[in-house]
Write a structure and sequence with these properties.
By secondary structure, the chain is of the alpha/beta class. The protein is built from 2 helices and 8 strands. Helices cover 23% and strands 25% of the residues. Strand 2 and strand 3 form a beta hairpin. The longest helix is centred in the middle third of the chain and has 17 residues, at 53-69. The protein is globular, with a radius of gyration of 15 Å.
Length: 137
């Protein structure tokens, strides 16, 4: 299920590509003339729970490569688990988050994620960032 419609063709640009960090159904969606990346559970302001480190690391690399090759305006994940305060996570299961982080992230966060994954290399661990936390189980 990969395809794209080019800007100027009368259709909006929408391109899915498989990343697979969590399971076989993980996809990133990119759309619009100035791209918005819908990153699902791969990157969002929250606890990025990683089951398969090597697959996730490859996904972060693919995502970074895509973002470097396209003019990305907005990065949007599935939900919010972080507070506005840097590095602070709401407790899992919280339903009232009055001081939550904004949902949209920037392309700099994609590069930060990729750099963090590469820095951990073959020694993954919990890695706290201002706007997301990588948690390898």
């Amino acid at each position: 299920m990969e395809g794209e419609a080019r800007p100027g063709s009368g259709q909006d640009f929408l391109r899915p590509f498989r990343t697979g960090p969590k399971d076989e159904s993980s996809w990133i969606w990119a759309g619009g003339i100035r791209l918005s990346l819908l990153t699902g559970d791969t990157l969002y302001p929250g606890l990025l729970t990683v089951q398969d480190w090597n697959a996730y690391r490859r996904s972060a690399a693919r995502l970074a490569a895509f973002a470097q090759q396209h003019e990305v305006a907005l990065v949007v994940g599935n939900h919010i688990e972080m507070k506005k305060a840097p590095g602070e996570l709401y407790p899992i299961g919280t339903t009232f988050q009055p001081d939550e982080h904004a949902l949209p992230l920037k392309t700099a966060h994609i590069e930060e994620l990729h750099a963090a994954c590469e820095a951990m290399a073959d020694s993954p661990h919990r890695d706290v960032h201002d706007d997301f936390i990588i948690d390898v189980s």
